[in-house]
Amino acid sequence: MDFLRYAEQSAALLNADLPDVDALRDHLAGRAWLQEQATDRDCMLLRKHQRELRPVFEASAGGDVAGVVEGLNELMTRHPVSPRITDHDGHLHVHVASRSASVAELLVGESLLGLMTLVCDLGPTRLGVCAAAPCTQVYVDTSPNQSRRYCSDRCSSRANVAAYRARQKAVAPA
Questions:
Q1: Which helix (H) or strand (E) holds 84?
Q2: Which domain of life is it from (predicted)?
Q3: Mean pLDDT of the 100-126 span
Q4: Contact 36, 103 (CB under 8 A)
């Protein structure tokens, strides 16, 4: 089980626009067995999870350790994980939900277990909200010195170009 991947997928899930089943299926690219099972109910439950999870990322970005821990614990209480061992691809590994779990239950379980493990292993301030205005995407910071501030290279470049132009404008003769 790759908890770091689950944590990063959690940020991707939070950033995903899931208005309908087709959007959810697009989000699940590479996981064909889940794409086939996706329903409108899964979309509704995942949109609710997005609203519930965002405050955890915002707390982390603000350095609110208690907010991160309390938020994750509350979500784990609402969405208990039922791990199981499987060998469907030739080697033993852990899945976070039973075979009867819905797509939403599986994704929420992966998300929460991944974030809890990340917070315990790397610290509660490794989740963030992009610093580039007007972007509101979230990210997981796995950098060695906890220096990530942007959700993507695109936002980082855009912010750096804007800062450069502002500095040039400030020193330009009037």
A1: strand 84-86
A2: Bacteria
A3: 94
A4: no
